[in-house]
Design goal:
By secondary structure, this protein is an alpha/beta fold. The chain is built from seven helices and six strands, in the order βααβαβαβαβαβα.
């Protein structure tokens, strides 16, 4: 089985209270969910080049959201549409190459396409940063079957993917 992961950078890091070791996270995705390709969707900031290199070294494919230069906000551009479009494009163009989609996010904005991808039998799991801030559209069984949902902040997962300062690698 070969699955693809699609990660909403801001949704992941905004609600996580600890740092992820990207290499461990990529191995976790490969081993636990049979992920052959992991796409990271984020806004581009030139000062973050070391981060981008670290993510690429860990095996992530970076997809930068284009933000008009005239915008003064430091917030990343809205990657939700870009991520959604890319998932649907992969399903259409590579449907025989991969089995399922894993979404890393907590955002309820994805609920409509999550439901649709489940109908297509191409959805595996939502990995939310934590239970406390997960959208109520996902947390409750009446909205989404719990088999489609997991949390990265559970003790077992956190121990697998958390960055620890005693690692030989420099901090993310």
């Amino acid at each position: 089985m070969s699955n693809y992961t699609f990660i909403d950078w801001q949704n992941l890091h905004q609600w996580l209270q600890w740092k992820i070791d990207y290499a461990k996270f990529r191995i976790y995705l490969r081993d636990k969910y049979q992920v052959s390709k992991a796409y990271y969707f984020l806004g581009f900031k030139e000062r973050e080049n070391a981060l981008y290199e670290n993510l690429q070294d860990a095996g992530f494919i970076l997809i930068f959201n284009q933000k008009p230069e005239h915008l003064k906000s430091e917030k990343k551009g809205n990657v939700d549409v870009n991520l959604t479009f890319n998932v649907m494009k992969k399903i259409l163009e590579e449907k025989n190459i991969f089995e399922k989609v894993i979404l890393v996010s907590w955002d309820g904005d994805y609920k409509v396409w999550v439901d649709y991808v489940i109908e297509l039998n191409k959805f595996e799991k939502i990995l939310a940063p934590n239970l406390k801030f997960a959208s109520s559209l996902y947390k409750h069984q009446k909205h989404l079957d719990p088999k489609y949902f997991a949390f990265l902040d559970n003790e077992w997962t956190r121990n697998k993917i958390e960055y620890r300062s005693n690692n030989s690698k420099k901090a993310p």
